Amino acid sequence: MDFFTNITDIIMHHGKAFLEAAWVTVSLTAVSLVMASVIGLVFAFFKVSGVFILQKLADAYIFVVRGMPLIVQLMFLYYGISSVIVLSDFTAGALALGIHSGAYIAEIFRGAIQSIDRGQMEAARSLGMPYGLAMRRIVLPQAFKCAIPPLGNQFIIGLKDSSLVAYIAVTELFNRALSAQADNFMPFETYFVVGLYYLALVAIFSFILNRLEKRLDTSKTPLPPRKHKEVAA
């Protein structure tokens, strides 16, 4: 009974602060994932460009990001960025998270682009369509649909990874939890409540992504072929 009493007390005293922090978490996640998507798309183009230098540059970026713990990258990028240009904690944290997620999204986009039949690009080029236009109008729309499920997973991971910016003083959910448990001396109950907030955010993200997947579903039964009229002899 004490557990539920403590939970109620935490919600009563820190509920508003947690809601404000949840909004910061959502905003941070959205900004960082927009940055990551742009970065990922650029490096995916590098990977499929056929240009040796660009491919090696993309390989190096992806290898370094995927080979180091996120918390190390976050601290390195945060203090590195802050030493060059003065940014708010939120902006620097979002940029660091965007650079990290960009490596994974680059591989998602690269795989999606390469999954499209090469014959479609060749057919477009044979009709006189420039490479960039063919990529934009023919390949990328199909690749984007293929990338939706893995992108959704990466976006949810990005939401949870945003908790690490608590260590650079961004007042998101986990940061609020650290402050609350230091104030009420109930760490278990406090982290339980914050865990529920994260579960709620993940549930909302998952719902939106599932709806998007259904709207962009390409596995629907194709239309039957048209019957050719027989020409009388």
UniProtKB/TrEMBL annotation:
It is found in: Cell membrane. It is a multi-pass membrane protein. Residues 22-209 form the ABC transmembrane type-1 domain. The chain crosses the membrane at residues 22-46, 58-81, 191-210. One of its GO terms (biological process) is amino acid transport. Pfam families: BPD_transp_1 (PF00528). One of its GO terms (molecular function) is transmembrane transporter activity. GO terms for cellular component: ATP-binding cassette (ABC) transporter complex. Belongs to the binding-protein-dependent transport system permease family. This is Cystine transporter permease. It comes from Brevibacillus reuszeri.
